[in-house]
User: Which sequence fits this backbone?
C-alpha cells in the first residue's frame, strides 16, 4: 500500500514538473527568405524549422540544453544576409548558422570560413562541398551537380534506352540530345550546368544551345521554339517551380517531344498542380520524401505542423517542411556530438562542430532507418558531399511517386572523386 | 507506519492544492488590435538619381537608380496579449504570417521577452517591412500565388501598386495567422495560435 502511495506521489510530482533544461541554451541563427523572390517555398521551410526546433526541445534538446532558434528574413537580398550574419556573430553569439540561397551562401562563404562558423545551407551547390576550399560549409541534400548527373543518367538508362517513345529514334541510330533551360544569371540555376554537360559527354549525349529562362518567366515560348530547332530528346530545368511549370506547359503546347528532368527546387506539389497533363512523366530530384508520404518520422512532422502552426492549412504544406526536419535533425546531432566533447558555450565551438559533422557516417535523421526518405549522409574532412545517392521522383497520374534511386559513386567509381567541388 | 502514511497523504493533498491550479490555469489570449502604416514611400520600382550630364559636366541629369532599390512599406501590427490566468506569464516569441488580399506577403517574428501579470493585458507592436520590388518578385516566382492572381484578374506589379496606394485606407483586408509562445514561472512552454483581420474586403469578395 505504502509503495503504491509513494509511486503515485512520485508520478504526480513528475506530472507537475515542467521540462527544465540542464544548463543554458545553444543558439542557432537562421537566415531565411520570408518576403523575397523565393519566399513561396521559403515560408514553408521556415515554418518547418520552427516546428522541428519545438520537437527537438520537447525531446531533450541538445544534451538537455535548449536549442534557441533565431530566425530572420533577408528577403533574398545578399547584403541583408551579410548584415544578419554579423548580428548573429557579434551580438547573439550563435553556435552555428543555417542558410538559405546559393547567392547568400556563396557570398558569405569566405567570411564564415574565416570566422570558423559552421553553416548548413539549403543551397546544395557543388561549389560548397570541397573542404579544401570551404571547410565550414555543409549542405544537407545531395548536391545539385550530383542531382543533375543522376537525373540525366537515370533518364538515359531507364527512358531513352527502354521506352517505346524513343524506340524508333534509337533504332534509326539517332543520338540523344540535351538542352538546358535555366536563368543564366542565377547562381542556383547555373551551379550544376558544367556538371550535367560533362555527364552528357560521358553518356554520349549531344548538347544543344542553352536557353535563358527567367526565374519569373510567365512565358517560355520563344525558348521552347529555340530548343525545338535543336531537336532535343531531354530538357534539364534548373529553375524554380513557377518557371519550370511555365516551360513544361509551353513545351507541351508547342509539341516539343523531349522529356523533362528537373532540379530539386523546381519539383514539388505545385508543379503537379500547375502543369496538369503536361507534367505527366516529368522526372525530378528531391532531397527527401514529400510531405505526407508513408516513411518513418513523417507522422511526427505532420503532428507538429498541426501542433505549432495550426492556422496554416495542410494543403499549403510541401516537401520544404520535411527538408527543414532533415536539416535541423542534422544540426541537432552535430551540436550534440560537439557539446559532449566540450560544452558549446566554451569558445571557439566552430572547429568542434565542424569535426562533429565530419564524423557522420551513413547518418539518418533522428537515428531512425529510412527516416523522411533521406538517403544516408556521410561527411569526411576531405569530402562534404552528403551523399552519392540521388532520389528521383516522377509525376504519374497526377501524383508524385518514386522513380529511381541511384548511387552515382557506385555507378561511376573512377569518376566520383574528380567530381568534388563543381 | 501510520506516520509515514499521514505524511504522504498530507504531501499529496498539498501538492494537489499547489500544482493543480497551475495545470488548469487559463492560457493567454492573443488578438490583433489594429494595423498601422509605420512608414511608406510612394510606389516606385527604380529611384531616380541625379548624375553629372555627359554633355555638360556642370549640369546634372536624372537617371534611373540601381535595380533592387524600390519603395518600402513598413506596417505595424498591434496585438493585445491577455493573461486571464492566476500566474504571470512571459511572452517568449510571437510569430505570424501577414497576408494582403489573402496573399501571404511576410512572416514577422517578435523575440523580445515581456512579462504579463496575472489577470492583466499588455500590448505589443511588431513592425514588418516589405519592399515593392521584392514583393513583385515573390509574387512572380511563387507558384502558389499564380492561380490566385489569375483568379483576381491582376498581375504581380498591378496588385503591389494597389497595396502601396491603398494601404492607408485599408481598403483591402490585412490578415495575420500565427503562434505565440509563452513561458510560465516554472519554465513551462505554452503555445497559443491566433489569427486576426483588419481592413476591407478581399478583391472579388461580395460587398
Assistant:
Amino acid at each position: 500500500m505504502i509503495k503504491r502511495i509513494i509511486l503515485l506521489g512520485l508520478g504526480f510530482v513528475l506530472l507537475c514538473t515542467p521540462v527544465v533544461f540542464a544548463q543554458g541554451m545553444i543558439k542557432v541563427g537562421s537566415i531565411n527568405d520570408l518576403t523575397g523572390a523565393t519566399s513561396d517555398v521559403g515560408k514553408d521551410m521556415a515554418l518547418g524549422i520552427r516546428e522541428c526546433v519545438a520537437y527537438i526541445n520537447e525531446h531533450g534538446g541538445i544534451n538537455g540544453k535548449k536549442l534557441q532558434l533565431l530566425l530572420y528574413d533577408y528577403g533574398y537580398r545578399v547584403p541583408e544576409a551579410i548584415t544578419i550574419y554579423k548580428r548573429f556573430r557579434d551580438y547573439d553569439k550563435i553556435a552555428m548558422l543555417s542558410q538559405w540561397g546559393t547567392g547568400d551562401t556563396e557570398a558569405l562563404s569566405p567570411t564564415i570560413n574565416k570566422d570558423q562558423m559552421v553553416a548548413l545551407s539549403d543551397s546544395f551547390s557543388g561549389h560548397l562541398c570541397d573542404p579544401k576550399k570551404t571547410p565550414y560549409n555543409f549542405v544537407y541534400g545531395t548536391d545539385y551537380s550530383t542531382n543533375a548527373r543522376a537525373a540525366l543518367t537515370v533518364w538515359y538508362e531507364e527512358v531513352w534506352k527502354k521506352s517505346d517513345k524513343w524506340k524508333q529514334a534509337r533504332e534509326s541510330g539517332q543520338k540523344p540530345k540535351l538542352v538546358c533551360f535555366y536563368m543564366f544569371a542565377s547562381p542556383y540555376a547555373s551551379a550544376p550546368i558544367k556538371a550535367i554537360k560533362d555527364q552528357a559527354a560521358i553518356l554520349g549525349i549531344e548538347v544543344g544551345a542553352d536557353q535563358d529562362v527567367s526565374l519569373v518567366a510567365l512565358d517560355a515560348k520563344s525558348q521552347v521554339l529555340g530548343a525545338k530547332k535543336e531537336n532535343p530528346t531531354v530538357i534539364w530545368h534548373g529553375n524554380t517551380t513557377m518557371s519550370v511549370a511555365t516551360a513544361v506547359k509551353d513545351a507541351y503546347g508547342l509539341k516539343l517531344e523531349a522529356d523533362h528532368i528537373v532540379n530539386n527546387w523546381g519539383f514539388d506539389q505545385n508543379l503537379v498542380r500547375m502543369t496538369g497533363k503536361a507534367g505527366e512523366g516529368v522526372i525530378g530530384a528531391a532531397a527527401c520524401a514529400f510531405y505526407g508520404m508513408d516513411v518513418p518520422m513523417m507522422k511526427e512532422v505532420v503532428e507538429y505542423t498541426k501542433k505549432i502552426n495550426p492556422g496554416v492549412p495542410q494543403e499549403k504544406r510541401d516537401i520544404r517542411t520535411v527538408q527543414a526536419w532533415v536539416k535541423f535533425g542534422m544540426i541537432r546531432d552535430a551540436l550534440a556530438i560537439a557539446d559532449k566533447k566540450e560544452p558549446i558555450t566554451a569558445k571557439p565551438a566552430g572547429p568542434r562542430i565542424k569535426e562533429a559533422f565530419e564524423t557522420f557516417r551513413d547518418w539518418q535523421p533522428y537515428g531512425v532507418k529510412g527516416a523522411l526518405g533521406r538517403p544516408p549522409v556521410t561527411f569526411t574532412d576531405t569530402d562534404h558531399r552528403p551523399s552519392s545517392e540521388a532520389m528521383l521522383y516522377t509525376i504519374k497520374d497526377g501524383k508524385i511517386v518514386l522513380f529511381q534511386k541511384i548511387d552515382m559513386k557506385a555507378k561511376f567509381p573512377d569518376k566520383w572523386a574528380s567530381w568534388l567541388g563543381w | 507506519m501510520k506516520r509515514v502514511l499521514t505524511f504522504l497523504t498530507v504531501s499529496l493533498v498539498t501538492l494537489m492544492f499547489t500544482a493543480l491550479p497551475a495545470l488548469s490555469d487559463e492560457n493567454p489570449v492573443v488578438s490583433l488590435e489594429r494595423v498601422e502604416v509605420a512608414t511608406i514611400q510612394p510606389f516606385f520600382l527604380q529611384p531616380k538619381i541625379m548624375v553629372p550630364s555627359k554633355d555638360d559636366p556642370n549640369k546634372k541629369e536624372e537617371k534611373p537608380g540601381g535595380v533592387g532599390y524600390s519603395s518600402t512599406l513598413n506596417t505595424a501590427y498591434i496585438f493585445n496579449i491577455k493573461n486571464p490566468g492566476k500566474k504571470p506569464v512571459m511572452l517568449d516569441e510571437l510569430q505570424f504570417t501577414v497576408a494582403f488580399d489573402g496573399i501571404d506577403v511576410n512572416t514577422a517574428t517578435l523575440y523580445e521577452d515581456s512579462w504579463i501579470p496575472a489577470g492583466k493585458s499588455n500590448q505589443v507592436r511588431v513592425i514588418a517591412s516589405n519592399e515593392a520590388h521584392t514583393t513583385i518578385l515573390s509574387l512572380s516566382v511563387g507558384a502558389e500565388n499564380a492561380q490566385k492572381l489569375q483568379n483576381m484578374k491582376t498581375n504581380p506589379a498591378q496588385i503591389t501598386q494597389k497595396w502601396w496606394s491603398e494601404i492607408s485606407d485599408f481598403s483591402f483586408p490585412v490578415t495575420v495567422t500565427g503562434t505565440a509562445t509563452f513561458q510560465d514561472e516554472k519554465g513551462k512552454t505554452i503555445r497559443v495560435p491566433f489569427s486576426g483581420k483588419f481592413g476591407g474586403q478581399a478583391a472579388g469578395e461580395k460587398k
Remarks:
- The mean pLDDT of chain A is 93.
- The longest helix of chain A spans residues 319-341.
- Chain A is about 40% helix and 15% strand.
